[in-house]
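My current task is to audit a protein record that another person submitted. I need someone to confirm that the token line plausibly describes how this chain folds. Take the sequence as given and treat only the tokens as open to question. This is what I was given:
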Amino acid sequence: MSSRAAEVVELLTVRGQTLAVAESLTGGLVAAEITSVPGASKVFRGSVTAYATELKHELLGVDATLLAQRGAVDPQVAAEMAAGVRDALGADWGVATTGVAGPDPQDGQPVGTVFVAVAGPGGPVAGADRGGKTAALRLNGDRAEIRRESVRSVLALLLERAAGQQTGNERAQDTERNGGF
């Protein structure tokens, strides 16, 4: 169990929010990391491991034309995967991983090219103002190292986006603690 996964579970538990995961290159590692945390059942809705490209469209609603034109290793594909799993599993937050763990390049992308995405509450593909964010990674190492770092990165991105989203009540509490208006 990682401290990031524990932080995700704690933060979402406090907020009464839920999480769904869409994975490609990580093959279930993100879901395994989250569910290794005691109490994860309070926040974790489920996951879809869409390893085959066509499943990204069929199960997660990723645009088929986008997949045909750019392939599965693409930032927009990651964003659509995150939003798709969030919507399909009825969660507040969706996260996704797609990329090339190796040993061979894929879709014209070199080994170590990874895109991770977060889709927050609201909207079909949430923008930054709604907790949505995609990150491009260029990772080094062997297949296992690339996959592990992808898990760490998507959890860090979720923490960044979820922690940055405050409700009006939380803002009021911050103001009271800080003595400001």
Confidence is low (pLDDT under 50) at residues 167-181. Residues 143-164 form the longest helix (22 residues). The chain has seven helices and five strands.
